[in-house]
Design a protein that fits this description.
This protein is mostly helical. The chain has one domain (12-187): Arp2/3 complex 21 kDa subunit ARPC3 (Orthogonal Bundle). It has six helices and two strands; from the N terminus they run αββααααα. It has a two-stranded antiparallel ribbon.
Length: 191
């Protein structure tokens, strides 16, 4: 005898699914609209991190389950696999501190946003500088067919630009994300 089990989904679960899927699709679409950072053109500005921060604010578990999709789809459409992995790392180092401090920092009062943005900027700059220090020389040898020593020297020369790029993109993404979160909370989409 076959027993059929029906799972009931509440309207809230459908609403959550639609919200997360919509934000994920928005993040993927925004990833394709990039502006190169002039001194180091392989670094590109985009605002795809804003929907990821909003998903993280809703629930970190949803963000970690959507990151593989955020990674795979652009790679399937021709984005560099290493670059997308670095982008996922960059966004993770942005949304984790931003959301955790913003959500739990109510005792910080009026300084909550400034502290959240500052620690987020420090997190992203440090983690991406460290990741680029170790990964970029190998990436340069793979993509540009440089000798490793030459790629290592080139990496050291662009490290200040990598730090500046990550600082500036954080100072764009973090305040815009918090503004969007405030608007979505007032509209009743977020708690």
């Amino acid at each position: 005898m076959v027993k059929i089990v029906f799972t009931t989904f509440s309207i809230e679960k459908y609403r959550t699914l639609v919200l997360i899927a919509g934000l994920l699709v928005l993040a993927i679409v925004l990833k394709f609209y990039e502006i190169p950072y002039p001194p180091v053109p392989f670094l590109k500005y985009d605002v795809s991190g804003i929907p990821l921060v909003i998903i993280a604010y809703y629930s970190l578990k949803y963000t970690f389950s959507t990151l593989p999709i955020y990674y795979v789809i652009p790679v399937l459409f021709g984005k560099d696999a290493v670059g997308m992995a670095m982008k996922c790392l960059a966004e993770t180092s942005t949304f984790i501190p931003l959301v955790l401090i913003y959500k739990r920092g109510s005792q910080l009062g009026k300084w909550r946003i400034s502290i959240a943005v500052s620690i987020t900027a420090l997190s992203r700059v440090l983690s991406m500088s460290l990741a680029n220090y170790f990964i970029t020389p190998y990436w340069l040898t793979w993509v540009y067919k440089m000798a490793f020593e030459e790629a290592y020297k080139a990496t050291l020369m662009i490290m200040p630009h990598i730090a500046l790029f990550n600082l500036t993109i954080t100072l764009i993404i973090a305040p815009l994300s918090l503004t969007c979160i405030t608007i979505l909370k007032r509209a009743g989409y977020l708690k």
